[in-house]
Structures are given as structure tokens and as C-alpha cells.
Write a structure and sequence with these properties.
Elements: H1 10-35, H2 37-57, E1 62-69, H3 76-86, H4 101-105, H5 108-116, H6 130-133, H7 141-156, E2 157-161, E3 168-174, H8 177-234, H9 242-277, E4 284-287, H10 300-327, H11 329-345, H12 347-365
Antiparallel strand pairs: 1-3, 1-4, 2-3
Helix pairs in contact: 1-10, 2-10, 3-8, 5-8, 8-9, 10-11
């Protein structure tokens, strides 16, 4: 008979060992952190203090915003696309008319006068333009303009379009609250002026073309009418002549065609004349920018908190790496081998040091 033993199930032992290992590992983690607590506190505190000095050294910025309602005219999309093309903006394929505004606002045609406009600032005791305000000095005026133009597009101006309401929010962020609001309102005014000017220019070009074409068609119509009148005066009886009847129909058809073209051109002429004298803006400014009361940047608290956690994470990671290296014989031997190889590779340095030390000993004995 075989004796029954009360040996525990190995799986249960394995489970118990795993739980014990987990508990031991957790305790070791706490012990490792506690052993390096002063290093963690020192590094985290140093990084936090440096981040405080860093954010205090940053220049505060202020943001002013303008709210714009684009043209709601269904026929405005084609007109706006033409204005965008005049501003040098390629709209590509089918896009919404609202999507064109950010590119037009940041175009050179709109921002040129904004850059050269004089502004009252706290930095200078006289009105200055943006090139003078940011103290841009380049080889040529063209490069100075390009530098400020790039700064406005990339760092100062931001344009957001609401998909639901189609409202456009133009924001300007600078070092002075009054300057931010002045630039934002200036951009809105220049956008309005640009739209009106380009629309009038396009309407004038269309009017000139229609007017020239109208004169040509009017001359052709008069010639066709004269030809029909002369034909009827020369041919009183044409009922018995098929050839004369056919000629009369041809002349009458010529008069009808020229008359139809003349009437249509006359309508277009009156339409473009009305469009030319219209001064209603394509965009409507709902809210002009007001002088911001509170600064918008930098986010000092967020920056300090971010660097605090970053310093804590780096210091804790360093403590674990140091503990891992110091407590593992295998790792110690590995790093010792690396140290030995480095000394071999750079042995000439140690030899030079030994020679230098020997020379110093000889000199001291002398």
C-alpha cells in the first residue's frame, strides 16, 4: 500500500511565492525611494526653483480677439474666391467660403498696411510701426518687412473658424494689451477695406468689359437694322420671290440676335454699376477687440507644476538605476568590464598621467 502524503500542491506554493515576491518587491520599492529621499527632494526642489526663475523671466503676453461674421450671401462664394485669388491665395478645389478667411487675413495684401501703421505703445514715447517696435534690423527694408510678416503669421495672429456658427475669431497676442487690441482692430479694418476695394476693382473691370462689348453689339445692331431697312426700301414686293423672302428672314434674324445680346449686356451693365458703387462690407465685425485686462501667457503655474513632476520622475528614476547597479553583482561585474575596456581603450591617458606624476615626484626631490 502506498502511503498518502499531505504534500501541498506545487501550484499553491507557486502562488504563495508569487504573492510573497510581490509583497517583497513593493517593500523594496518603498525602501529604495526612502533611501534616496534626500536626492529626490534635492533634485525636485532644484528643478522647481529653476522653473520658477525661468517663468518669472518670461515676458507676459496679452491676447485681444475680434469676432467676424462672414458674408451670408449665397452668391458671395464666387466673389470671395475671386478676392482670394487677387490676394495670391490658391483655394484649390471645392472649399467653403468661410475656410478662405484665415488665408486672406494672413495674406500680405491685408497685413502690409497693418505692419507699417503707427501704434502708440508703452515701449516708445512716440508712435512706431511694428518693424520699429520689435526693433527688426535687416540688410534691406524688404527683409525687415518679411521678418515681421513671418512673425505675425506664425507667432502673433491666430484665426479660428466655428463649424457650427461659421463665426471667425481673430486673436492677436503681443507683449502689451493696448497693442494687441490695436493690431486686432487694424487687421479687421484692413480686411474690410481690402474686401471692398477688391470687389470694386473687380466690378470696375467687369463694367469696362461690358461697356466695351455693349458698344460693339450696339454698333452691330444698328448696322443690322440699317441693312434690314435698306432691303425693305429697295424691295417693296417680295411675296412672289422666295429668294427675297429668305434674304429678309436672314436680316431679321440678325437684328433679333443682336438685339437679344444687347438687352442682356444692358442688364449686366446696370448690375455691375450697382455692384461698383456698393460700399456694404463683405464681412461684418460683431465684436471689435477690447484691451485685455488679464495676461494670457505664459502659463506659469502649469509650467512650474510640469517641471516639478518631471524633476521628481527623473530623480526617482536615477535612484532606482543607482540601486539596481549597486545591489546586483552581475550588474557590477558588467559595469566593471565596461570600465576596464574603457581604460584599455584610453590607456594612453592614464600613462600620460603616470608620467606626469613621476616627473612631479622627481622635481620635488630635486
Amino acid at each position: 500500500m502506498s502511503k498518502k502524503t499531505n504534500d501541498p500542491d506545487p501550484r499553491e506554493l507557486n502562488q504563495f511565492n508569487i504573492d510573497d515576491d510581490d509583497e517583497i518587491n513593493f517593500i523594496e520599492i518603498l525602501e529604495t525611494i526612502w533611501s534616496g529621499r534626500w536626492l529626490i527632494v534635492a533634485v525636485t526642489g532644484l528643478v522647481s526653483i529653476l522653473s520658477v526663475f525661468y517663468v518669472l523671466s518670461l515676458t507676459p503676453t496679452y491676447t485681444a480677439s475680434v469676432t467676424i461674421l462672414p458674408d451670408s450671401d449665397p452668391s458671395g462664394r464666387g466673389r470671395l474666391a475671386g478676392l482670394a485669388a487677387m490676394a495670391g491665395v490658391d483655394i484649390g478645389g471645392e472649399v467653403s467660403d468661410v475656410q478662405l478667411y484665415p488665408d486672406i487675413i494672413k495674406s500680405e495684401s491685408v497685413l502690409r498696411d497693418v505692419i507699417y501703421k503707427k501704434y502708440d505703445t508703452g515701449k516708445f514715447d512716440r508712435p512706431v510701426n511694428l518693424i520699429e517696435y520689435w526693433e527688426i534690423e535687416e540688410e534691406t527694408p524688404a527683409k525687415e518687412f518679411e521678418s515681421v510678416f513671418k512673425r505675425l503669421r506664425e507667432n502673433v495672429i491666430s484665426v479660428n473658424v466655428s463649424r457650427d456658427t461659421r463665426l471667425i475669431t481673430l486673436s492677436v497676442e503681443t507683449e502689451e494689451p493696448e497693442l494687441s487690441s490695436d493690431i486686432a482692430n487694424s487687421i479687421a479694418d484692413q480686411l474690410d477695406a481690402y474686401m471692398i476695394t477688391k470687389r470694386r476693382t473687380r466690378a470696375t473691370e467687369q463694367r469696362d468689359w461690358v461697356e466695351r462689348r455693349l458698344k460693339e453689339v450696339e454698333s452691330d445692331l444698328e448696322a443690322a437694322e440699317e441693312a434690314l431697312r435698306d432691303f425693305r426700301e429697295r424691295n417693296v414686293r417680295i411675296a412672289d420671290s422666295p429668294r427675297l423672302l429668305l434674304e429678309q428672314q436672314r436680316l431679321m434674324r440678325e437684328v433679333e440676335v443682336n438685339n437679344a445680346v444687347f438687352v442682356e449686356l444692358k442688364k449686366q451693365y446696370e448690375s455691375v454699376r450697382i455692384q461698383e458703387i456698393r460700399d456694404m462690407p463683405v464681412v461684418q465685425v460683431l465684436d471689435y477687440a477690447r484691451v485685455p485686462v488679464e495676461r494670457s501667457g505664459p502659463q506659469r503655474k502649469r509650467t512650474v507644476i510640469l517641471w516639478f513632476f518631471l524633476g521628481a520622475a527623473l530623480s526617482v528614476g536615477f535612484v532606482f538605476v543607482r540601486n539596481f547597479v549597486n545591489n546586483s553583482e552581475e550588474n557590477k561585474s558588467f559595469f566593471q568590464r565596461i570600465t576596464t575596456d574603457v581604460k584599455k581603450d584610453f590607456g594612453f591617458l592614464s600613462k600620460n598621467n603616470n608620467v606626469r606624476e613621476a616627473d612631479e615626484v622627481v622635481d620635488s626631490k630635486k
